[in-house]
Structure formats: structure tokens, C-alpha cells
Amino acid sequence: MRAVCPGSFDPVTMGHLDIFRRAAAHFEELTVLVTGNPNKRTGLFTIDERMELIRSVTRDIPNVRVDWWGGLLVEYTTKHGITALVKGLRTALDYEYELPMAQMNRRLTGVDTFFLLTDEKYGYISSSLLKEVAKYGGDVRGLLPDAVVEAVEAKYRSTNG
Ligand code: PNS
């Protein structure tokens, strides 16, 4: 069975990477799907940059592919004949946020959502928290993959002047 792991991944964290690895061990193929509109400049990284970072940190996981989508998630899964979504859950807040989306997606097309519990090492991190810490010079090593730490630092060097 093939699955899609969707998200904004701005940028990909060690928590995401852990979910990709574990999901890839259970599915024949895992598509990490960066969602968003490539023409809108939202977030720190462009869609292309996010995809490139994900590609570089998942190079050693042979059944992971990376793609992007600007529409409804279920249009992508239907188009590719994929019947499973994978999401990571950190806390009950994530559950509250994910539950209606999972139920709506299932109602729309029958696609099922599989939840993996985040490794306890990464339960408190998010892309936005790590960006904020990095922006003000805090140490985010070990929480973002090394290539991503460098990319985030380079972004803030250029935007902070
Ligand atoms: O990493 P995020 O930002 O929490 O991911 C949320 C995401 C991308 C999974 C969600 O916003 C999404 O599914 N976007 C695609 C548009 C869509 O299908 N929306 C309806 C969901 S029921």
C-alpha cells in the first residue's frame, strides 16, 4: 500500500523525519507532500526549497518520494490512486486539529488517515517554534536536521541583514 504524508514542512524537522522513517517502514511507498501555493510567498522557505530540503534529508530512505500540491489533498490522493494518509500526533491539540480533517477527507473520498505517535524526544517541537528560536539566535541543533539548521541560519542571516 502507498501513502501520502502531507504538511507545510516550513521547514522539515527531526520530528517529521522520524515520522517519515517509521511510516516508510510500513508502506511500500511514502510520498511526502508539501502543500501550499507556490505563487504565494508565505512562510520562510519557498515550496521548492522545502521540497529540496526534504529530498536531501530523506536520501537514505529509498521508498520516499517528494511532491507538492496546491489543491485539496483528496484530489491528489484520488489522482494517484492512494488510499492512505499518514500524520504524526504530538498532543491532544494535534488530535483536535486532525480529527475533523481526517473525517472530512474520509467522507470526501474514503481515504483513511493513519496516525503515528511522535517520538517522545520530539513531542514539543514544531517548525514555527524552531524558527522563532533560530531567529533570535537560539540553538536548534538536534531538533532540525543539520542541512536544515544551516538553511534556516542562512535565511535569517539574509533577512536580519
Ligand atoms: O503541516 P500543516 O500545515 O499542519 O498541514 C496541514 C495540511 C497541509 C495537512 C492541511 O492544511 C491540508 O490538508 N491542506 C490541503 C488542503 C485541504 O485538503 N484542505 C481540507 C482538509 S479536510
From TrEMBL:
Binding site for substrate: S8, K40, L73, K87
Keyword set, alphabetical order: ATP-binding, Coenzyme A biosynthesis, Cytoplasm, Magnesium, Nucleotide-binding, Nucleotidyltransferase, Transferase
Pathway: Cofactor biosynthesis; coenzyme A biosynthesis; CoA from (R)-pantothenate: step 4/5
Protein EC: 2.7.7.3
Record-level GO cellular component terms: cytoplasm
Catalytic activity line of the entry: (R)-4'-phosphopantetheine + ATP + H(+) = 3'-dephospho-CoA + diphosphate
Domain Cytidyltransferase-like: 4-132
Top-level taxon in the UniProt lineage: Bacteria
Binding annotation for ATP: S8, F9, H16, G88, L89, R90, E98, Y122, G123, Y124, I125, S126, S127, S128
One Pfam family linked to the record: CTP_transf_like
Stated family: Belongs to the bacterial CoaD family.
Functional note: Reversibly transfers an adenylyl group from ATP to 4'-phosphopantetheine, yielding dephospho-CoA (dPCoA) and pyrophosphate.
Name this protein carries in UniProt: Phosphopantetheine adenylyltransferase
Organism: Corynebacterium hylobatis
Gene name per UniProt: coaD
